[in-house]
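debug: dumping io for the single-chain case to check the tokenizer round-trip. Nothing else runs in this session.
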Amino acid sequence: MEPRGTAENAPTVAEALRTYDAQSAAIYDHLELRDGSIAAINGFVVRTLRDSGRVERVLDMTCGTGAQVIALVAAGFKVTASDLSGEMLRLARAKFADAGYDIPTHQADMRDVSLGRFDAIISMYNAIGHLRPDEFRMACANAADHLGDGGIYIFDIFDRDAMGHVPTHEMLDTAMEVGQSRYARFSTMEFNRKSGVLHLRQKTFEQKEVSKLRLLQHDYTLQTYSREELIDTLSGSGFSDIRILRVPEAAPGFNALGQLMHIAIARR
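debug: decoded output
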């Protein structure tokens, strides 16, 4: 089965880089790594790798600001971090230093990153969704090429078959205070059933103390995949023992967005 998508509305890497520019990267952790979701997803990744019984070296090929990397290093794994966004990596390196960790960190593209062979490769928080279907196949093949025999590939992605539950109205998805700053984000989602592309428009308001409101606006798309499409792509890239789990089952405690996502675990 060929993952569907159209050139007109498919995600692009350039779009993703604009989404995670300097201003957005600076507040990413506040907006995305909130409530108990990060602990839930990190706990799942750590448990999965430990249960495999033979994982030591791990590559986070889309590390963002380093949330999974720090959790994995704290759990005893030897981790290499990479991401395409220089702004996200700048924040990740600062967090690693603050935690007292010396972690190899590289700016690289998940489609062709080549940093040696690993026992496991991960890509979390819908990073795969920023790729077109053909680029997703490239990323899967690249992961397979850099895993040893029996190596594990883990990623999460929006579930195409769950997109019927996406709200069609604008919603306030985040309202929070961090120190002297307040944030409010409004999101609108639109799903294209034919292409499987989820279009997101977000307006984030930030106010520091009593200063003027600052508005950040983002308009981007994410490719979604059904369970069958994921299995087809992974098996075609040389993976076997493929499991596709719903996020609420794999990582209890994840926020409501988890109802729309699933996690893939595949062995080379």
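debug: round-trip ok. Confidence is low (pLDDT under 50) at residues 1-8.
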